[in-house]
Records
---
Amino acid sequence: MELKIPPPLVGVILGLLMWSLAQQTDFGAITFEPGGTLALIALFAGLAIDVAAIIPFLRVKTTVNPMKPGNASQLVNTGIYRYSRNPMYLGTLMLLTALTIWLGNILNIVFLYFFIWYITKFQIRPEEKALAELFGEEYLRYKMKVRRWI
């Protein structure tokens, strides 16, 4: 794996950087009335996506450890995995989106794009390679039917 930092930790680090940016500067600060409500909606959506992504892994007793995709014992392609090949990362992105809205600093959108780029390059692509080696044609067919993010 190219990734050395577990994806949840990447999310926490970016969240702390977002919070720090919002605290250190007023540049990019915005305030709008439904911000708190939208942040809560994004927060609950992110949590729901993460739970919906983890449960199928637990049901089939395969690894949820993103650092060791080669340890997967079964390809999960049911439930939320019919719509996204990477709902755990999508859930984290939604949580970071909630934080962006709550902090009210538009500059934090840069961190959202960075998260997408970083996770795709250093986590998702190596995972895809490992899963293709592990599950062969079954994974390649799945990959053709379901998008990487949404």
Note: The mean pLDDT is 93.
---
Amino acid sequence: MRTVNMHDAKTRLSALVSENKPFILAKAGTPVAVVIPYNEYKQSVAQTDQRFGFMPEIEVPEDFDTLMANEIARLFGA
């Protein structure tokens, strides 16, 4: 992956981004950030996004917060 100094990146940002390739942004030769095309970022997020982490098959019903409210009220004598 190509490393670009901060000063060079400021003057050539449009050209760097239009190449549609990731690059490392460095300040005084020290890497500080990685710039990647949005499509690569979007794909990496989609691959790691899981509902409930270790329980992806769980689905929460829309009425979860009012589920069985009448039954609960009856049991508490309301």
Note: The radius of gyration is 25 Å.
